[in-house]
């Protein structure tokens, strides 16, 4: 069951807590946590760990680099994650590929644009299928930013189901 106090949005590399998609989700879930992250992936993960702590039942929403962060956290601490929603996650980066995690059962929804030129679907989808056994991979008519479809998504269905 969704605990809105354990719902967090992880923004992309060149973004921040004021991102368009986080703002959309916050209109439905006002308690959404949207911290700002800076630095390398290792530095960002060190900023994330104290926020999530040892609590369980987290729903992670991660966009691009934030999707990589969510994927790394969920593969390292699957018992703490209820569900993850990854928006064009940067799974093809060495931090994920070079140490491909063991498969996990965390329910995972990936939403990615068919016209994504930043994170190629042809690379991303096979990686996701290797690691996430409970995967719902949704290809949409959009690019990497997903701004065309973000306002049309049924965020409640994606997050709470």
Helix content: 25-40%
Sheet-strand content, in percent, reads: 15-25%
Largest sheet: 5 strands, parallel
- The beta-strand count equals 5
* Gyration radius, in Å: 14 Å
> How many helices in DSSP terms?
7
Uncertain spans: none
Average pLDDT reading: 96
In CATH, the homologous superfamily goes by the name Alpha/Beta hydrolase fold, catalytic domain
Distance between the termini: 8 Å
Number of domains: 1
**Principal-axes shape call:** globular
Structural class by secondary-structure content: alpha/beta
CATH fold topology: Rossmann fold
CATH level-two architecture: 3-Layer(aba) Sandwich
SSE pattern? EHHEHEHEHEHH
Write the layout of secondary structure elements.
Elements: E1 7-10, H1 20-28, H2 41-52, E2 58-63, H3 65-76, E3 81-87, H4 94-97, E4 108-113, H5 121-131, E5 135-140, H6 147-150, H7 155-160
Parallel strand pairs: 1-2, 2-3, 3-4, 4-5
Task: Give your account of this protein's structure.
With 161 residues, the chain is of the alpha/beta class. It has one domain (4-160): 3-Layer(aba) Sandwich (Rossmann fold), CATH 3.40.50.1820. 36% of the residues lie in helices and 18% in strands. It has seven helices and five strands, in the order βααβαβαβαβαα. It has a five-stranded parallel sheet, with helices on one face. Strand 4, helix 5 and strand 5 form a beta-alpha-beta unit. The longest helix is centred in the N-terminal third of the chain and has 12 residues, at 41-52. It is globular and about 35 Å long. The mean pLDDT is 96.
